[in-house]
Amino acid sequence: MARRGRKFIRGTGYCWWATLSRMYDDLVSARRARMRWNTPLSVAHADLLLDRLNVGPVTWIVDMGCGWGELLLRAVERAVGSNPVVDDRDSRARGVGVDTDPVALERGRALARRRGLEGRVEFVHADAATWSGAAERALCVGSSHAFGGSRAALEALAALVPHAGRLLFGDGCWPGSTTPGCHGHLR
């Protein structure tokens, strides 16, 4: 019996598509397992960017297109300090990571638990372009495609961050000079 292009084996409830889907998720997880983050960024440069983001006094950080949220977790760790004590009365930083990849989000949740940030960082399965909220600091590194391009991303992110807030936006990486064909993608 076939339904919508997916094969079922009668009486077993077995769906080969679901099995392949799980296998694909496992392969993606294995491929990314040794990656710190899914962008060409060194630890030293990430530290410099987080220094300039100045997360110390903030209470809310959002990472749009976060993947597994390593940069978000580091930002919250900086704000919380080396000994995070989860207490609702505590005004120290909280973070939310928004992404559409459930496998990456689950990895982020596991990392947050391991680092004692489970009560401070939430990972949300949502489209970054339609997520609504506000944050004192916003991160969006390598995810402008989620908004339809750089210009749309910057406009949407500017609406999330108040006048005195800060945005860390990273997009486009060229090893040399850009060509006129590249310029169209920056609109």
Write the layout of secondary structure elements.
Elements (H helix, E strand, L loop, with lengths): L1 E2 L2 E4 L4 E2 H17 L10 H11 L6 E5 L5 H11 L13 E6 L2 H13 L6 E5 L11 E5 L8 H11 L5 E5 L9 H4 L4
Parallel strand pairs: 4-5, 4-7, 5-6, 7-8
Antiparallel strand pairs: 1-2, 2-3
Provide structural commentary.
The strands form 2 sheets. This protein has a 5-stranded parallel beta sheet with strand order 6-5-4-7-8, with helices on both faces. α3 links the parallel β4 and β5. By secondary structure, the protein is an alpha/beta fold. The chain starts with a strand and ends with a helix. The protein is globular. The relative contact order is 0.14.
Short description:
The protein has 187 residues and is an alpha/beta fold.
The overall average pLDDT, rounded, is 79
Strand content: 15-25%
Structural class: alpha/beta
Order of helices and strands: EEEHHEHEHEEHEH
- How many beta strands in the DSSP annotation? 8
- The number of distinct helices, counting runs of at least 4 residues, comes to 6
Output the radius of gyration.
19 Å
Low-pLDDT residue spans:
none
- C-alpha termini separation: 48 Å
Main sheet overview: 5 strands, parallel
* Sheet with most strands: strand arrangement: 6-5-4-7-8
Global shape: globular
Helix content: 25-40%
